[in-house]
Amino acid sequence: MATTRRDYYEILGLSRDADDRAIKSSFRRLARELHPDVSDHPEAHERFREAAEAYEVLSKRETRELYDRYGHDGLRTGGFRPTDFDLGNFADIFSAFFGDDLFGGMGGRSGRSARGADLLAEVEIDLVEAAEGVARQVPFPVVVACATCGGNGAAPGTSPVTCSACDGLGRIQSVSNSLFGQVLRTQGCARCGGTGQTVESPCHDCSGTGRQTAQRELDVEIPRGIHDGQRIRISGEGHAGALGGRAGDVYVLVHVRPDPRFVREGNDIISSVDLTMTQAALGAMVQVATLEGEAELEFEPGTQPGEIRVLRGKGMPVLQGRGFGDHRVLVNVAVPGHLSDEQRQLLEEFARSEHDRNYGSDGGLFGKIRSAFR
Questions:
Q1: Are strands 250-256 and 231-234 parallel, antiparallel or unpaired?
Q2: Fewest CB within 10 angstroms: 49, 135, 271, 334, which?
Q3: Is the pTM of this model over 0.70?
Q4: Which domain holds residue 19?
Q5: Alpha-carbon distance 83 to 75, whole Å?
Q6: In terms of domains, do 242 and 292 share one?
Q7: Cα–Cα distance measured from residue 56 to residue 83, given in angstroms and rounded to the nearest whole number
Q8: Residues 122 and 243 occupy one common structural domain
């Protein structure tokens, strides 16, 4: 049976208006208390993962905005997946979040492969394409492993060697005296960049970096019902990692172009139809635009401006779910502005014959328009 996921702000003990500093401070405190290396609480492992996931979402503007607006479902449909951290090393998990200088430079293990960075690609589609779902080729520049050296940065026939400055540790410690006694400082090795290895014979194609920039295209399936500004995550297609590390992810940001015929509100579609004064009074069959093409609607005699015709199930499909929204057609009655003498005489004759029974209370135009937008 599915369980209800806890609110991320509740997990970190924060209010919803907490700033970045408070979010980081709260996670540091919880991490010190809950990491399995330092806590014997039976649920420490799971609670630490929960706190790490909450921090991962709330510390990034894009994911925090998505969560604030749509909650856990918004994150899921936006392509977010929690990072799968290895909790076996206390220093490594903190380094992943805050960098190597936390707690006085308690860095992770040197020489480890580093995961590649994520990247953002963008694609633009029409509203009708968003309703139907569409496949698009999305181009983007990406850092890939050098084919010549296999990603280690060394010329063919050679290999990286242990850094002589840090003896392969990737970091250097120094002791200095102060008024408070001796202070131990740890910092990344400048010579090897913290990898613990140096390249004596660099690869000519990548200049020893082990990576190159390339142009790539991905076939991306955009699901029907997607909203403007949502992202699709494609795992392992981002920038190549250092020292053969796993590639990052690609986040495809989807822009849905506005359609001049429609307004989207959630999964509902709103449009308008223009009736002439005589069509509204006498009734008419009129063609209206829908997401599926033109449809013929019959309007009864006496149709009033602001009336709403609801086309059930003709709106946008529910993203990653079942069902459809509705299409609401708002009636606008056009009043003629240029009359011939004969037309004016006919209207004046009608005006002399009309009476109160020709008109009735219908709730008011403003109320009708407001109900179209709920």
A1: antiparallel
A2: 135
A3: no
A4: 1-99
A5: 13
A6: no
A7: 8
A8: yes
Residue 176 lies inside a defined structural domain of this protein: no
Distance CA 37, CA 47 (A): 13
Among 64, 99, 134, residue at a domain's last position: 99
Structural domain contains residue 345: yes
Q: What angle do CA 96, 100, 101 make, to 5 degrees?
A: 130
Are residues 86 and 126 both part of a single domain?
A: no
End-of-domain residue from the set 223, 256, 289? 256
| Amino acid in position 303 | T
Task: With respect to residue 38, please indicate whether it lies within any of the assigned structural domains.
Answer: yes
**Which residues face 221 on adjacent strands?**
135
Q: What angle do CA 251, 256, 262 make, to 5 degrees?
A: 160
- Tokens found for residue 364: 């008011």
Residue 326 domain-assigned (yes or no): yes
**Full pLDDT tens readout for the chain, 374 residues:** 445 678 999 999 999 999 988 998 888 888 777 765 555 666 777 888 888 888 888 988 888 888 888 888 777 766 666 665 545 444 444 544 444 443 333 344 444 556 788 899 999 999 999 999 999 999 999 988 888 988 888 899 998 898 888 888 888 877 766 555 566 677 878 888 777 888 889 999 888 888 888 899 999 999 999 999 999 999 999 888 876 678 889 999 999 999 999 999 999 999 999 999 999 999 999 999 999 999 999 999 999 999 999 999 999 999 988 899 999 999 999 998 889 999 999 998 988 888 877 776 565 555 555 655 55
27 close to 35: Cβ distance less than 8 angstroms = no
| Residue 130 belongs to domain with CATH number | 2.60.260.20
What does each C-alpha distance from 272 to 39, 182, 208, 212, 365 come to in angstroms? 62, 77, 62, 53, 14
Structurally, how many domains does the chain consist of?
3
Pinpoint the alpha helices (H) of the chain: 8-12, 20-34, 44-58, 61-77, 90-98, 102-105, 127-132, 277-282, 341-353, 365-372
Cα 216 to Cα 51, 124, 139, 141, 281, distances in angstroms: 35, 18, 6, 6, 60
Q: How far apart are CA 200 and CA 115, in angstroms?
A: 24
Distance CA 230, CA 232 (A): 7
247/326 same-domain check: no
